[in-house]
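Minutes, project huddle
Topic: does the predicted pose make sense with zinc ion bound?
PN asked that the exact inputs be recorded in the minutes so nobody has to dig through chat later. Recorded below.
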Amino acid sequence: MAPDTTSSDTTATGAAHGIAAWHAHIYYDPARTRDVAARLREKIAAAFPDAVIGRWHDVNVGPHTRAMYQVAFGHDLFAGLVPFLALNREGLTILVHAELHGNSRAAHIDHAIWMGEVLPVNTAQWDNRAAAPRDA
Ligand code: ZN
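Predicted holo structure (tokens), as shared on screen:
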């Protein structure tokens, strides 16, 4: 059961939780759903001109295990943009995550907000101690 945070919790903005800003990663299949992703991209640009839409990544980058582009936005856009994505994603998988200073791994894994599938996350960039022995 969710706690009652309806009226008095006006401090529940991201800033109160150490969140600098937000990313939405829009995933697509370059061979099958790039056109859907392009349509969503145009809608985002039209409806949220203050959102910063990154370039297309047809090849996996960083922790992302599917082609995607990123949309960066501030707290002020969250309440409008996240529902907009939910209603307009046309079956695309989307990851919404906070930008947590100094804890990118937690942002992408522990605190991830997924729409659609939950995709694997490539943790290699955070696993620089991979050469160390595994915990026994
Ligand atoms: Zn991101």
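Observations noted during the meeting:
- The pocket of zinc ion is lined by residues 23, 25, 70, 97 (CB under 6 Å).
- The longest helix spans residues 34-47.
No decisions taken; revisit at the next huddle.
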